UniProtKB/TrEMBL annotation:
<keyword id="KW-0812">Transmembrane</keyword>
<keyword id="KW-0808">Transferase</keyword>
<keyword id="KW-0547">Nucleotide-binding</keyword>
<feature type="transmembrane region" description="Helical">
    <location>
        <begin position="80"/>
        <end position="103"/>
    </location>
</feature>
<keyword id="KW-1133">Transmembrane helix</keyword>
<dbReference type="GO" id="GO:0016301">
    <property type="term" value="F:kinase activity"/>
</dbReference>
<keyword id="KW-0597">Phosphoprotein</keyword>
<dbReference type="InterPro" id="IPR011712">
    <property type="entry name" value="Sig_transdc_His_kin_sub3_dim/P"/>
</dbReference>
<feature type="transmembrane region" description="Helical">
    <location>
        <begin position="56"/>
        <end position="74"/>
    </location>
</feature>
<dbReference type="InterPro" id="IPR036890">
    <property type="entry name" value="HATPase_C_sf"/>
</dbReference>
<keyword id="KW-0067">ATP-binding</keyword>
<dbReference type="InterPro" id="IPR050482">
    <property type="entry name" value="Sensor_HK_TwoCompSys"/>
</dbReference>
<keyword id="KW-0472">Membrane</keyword>
<dbReference type="Pfam" id="PF07730">
    <property type="entry name" value="HisKA_3"/>
</dbReference>
<protein>
    <recommendedName>
        <fullName>histidine kinase</fullName>
        <ecNumber>2.7.13.3</ecNumber>
    </recommendedName>
</protein>
<feature type="transmembrane region" description="Helical">
    <location>
        <begin position="115"/>
        <end position="133"/>
    </location>
</feature>
<keyword id="KW-0418">Kinase</keyword>
Amino acid sequence: MTMTGVTEPDVPGGGAPGGPWWWARRRSLVLDASLAVVSAVECAAEGVSFAHSSGIPVTLGMGFGFVVGATLLLRRRWPIAVVLIALAVTPAQMGLVLGVASLYTLAASDVPRRIIASLAVMTGAGTLIVAFIQTHHDVVRHGSSPSAKWGVVAITVLVAVGLTAPPVLLGLYVGARRRLVETLRERADGLERELSLLAEKAGERAERARIEERTRIAREMHDVVAHRVSLMVVHASALRSVVRDDPDRAVGSAELLGDMGRQALNELRQMLGVLRTEPAAGGAARPAEPVVRPVPAVTERSAEPDGDGPYLAQLGVLVEQSRAAGMAVSLSEEGDRRPLAAPVERTAYRVVQEALTNVHKHAVGATTLVRVAYRAEEIAVLVENGPPDGQPSAGLPSGGNGLVGMKERVSALGGGFVAGPSRSGGFRVSAVIPARV
């Protein structure tokens, strides 16, 4: 609440923290009470002279002076009123402490400057007039010379300025300093709140980044493990049935199982390598950053993923592995094959890989078509299978995360993903990915 024009914090009951009524602190109350006692004693003493000169009882004059001086206790609550009281008793030549202290309090408050200037000028003018009259009366009574008149003017001006200017200037300085400190304190509080919010947001961003990284790692592991292990399970089932009747075919299937296991280990090793840290300058550890390189030339028979992950040039190998597992799958490419950014090629490859894995799990023996279209600004991938032919399932578990992971991958690159049943009774998975990331 505002008591002296200086803003102080509100508290229940109308008081200020730590002090009663309009005082912010108890020591402020003690100071004002002490000044009020000094002012009251001074005005009471001056009330004796006033009583003699005005012809009123001395007791009444002293009582009047005591009450007037005691009003200094209200200087923080009503500074303008106290200044007006001091101005009103100036003709009675009382209230020196009252006038100086009230002017200082008024100047230090948040009262508009024009009001402060007006009251200061009125107080100075009143003091000047009263001092001039009293000094001139004393000079005339003791005899005067022409040069004494200029002395009277000089003395009265000095008295008026000395009793008015210093308290006003000091009050203006203290008030400006107080407001500056309050502004700096508010700014510091605001900066502290802002830093706290920034710290909270940084923590949220870090937590969100950790969640996204965990999701990405889980998605990569799902793609690698689900596809490779699904093919290994299918080949293991076929190997058990042909090991006695066709040993040569069983040997080929065993070699293929070993190749698939090695490929899965290589992909897992590459993926987990992202989690490793390398020392940065100054000894601090920082995550190893993958480098995006141009797509290398990969032959159709190559089975080793290179660099940052598998590429579209390896789709032929992927399709051959599914064929070796007994799936009737065909690969069709449209447009001119060209190198694309590693995230685009990796995402397109994973979509085809996961779609073929789902066919192995849910549509054993179904005829499957894989189509890749290279367009000017995008690449389109389609994997569509027909209805299953009734062969027994390999008993592969399904966590329901394959389609979700594919959609997350494609959406992260700004592409579109659609999956659902086809008119032929099978299932269709399609994705359109921007060629530029």
